[in-house]
Amino acid sequence: MRFPAETEEQVILDTLDRLNQDPLVHGILVQLPLPAHMNEQRVVARVAFEKDVDGFHERNVGALSIGTNRMVPCTPLGVMELLRYEQIDLAGMHAVVIGRSNIVGKPMANLLLQANATVTICHSRTKNMRDWTRQADLLVAAVGIPRFVTADDVKKGAVVIDVGINRVDGKICGDVDFSSVESVASKITPVPKGVGPMTIAMLLSNTVRAAQMQQQG
What's the whole-model pTM score? Predict the structure, then answer.
């Protein structure tokens, strides 16, 4: 459903109320960011938690924080599926997450903790960040700065997951300088065609799960 940027917030809230009540709708997400005149937190909270396939509702965030996962944000869930597919045993690994957003950084840290990794979160106020990233057995970059992570930031043999999507000179690149880090890392995800497709796949998975849970009551 597409709305003009100048649409009043109440129109969006009313639309969400209608979709929440519609038994034929099993999954809802609000495309972010919203126009400046809308309260993003209020709009996201209006989505019924059982239909919140983005995993952003505070009830789903709370469930994730205590390990009783319901709807988990799609990008970190996709990262975990990649790691599972590659048979990477996270137990005891030192995982460093660069970024503390509610969409990726925080839920990523929670999922890694659930997998028994030791987790460090770095962010814009972290001092001497390289001292932390060079200790990482698993490095997840979700900072939103093109090619922020270079080979000098990475321990030899580390697994590097690049969550970033940036546009530079009309081309898409990640938060990791792939060409330099590739020679240091044991495994690394490309941008594009890395975490992005997994995010879409997990959105579909969450939608199916939401539908199943709603059918079960």
Answer: 0.94
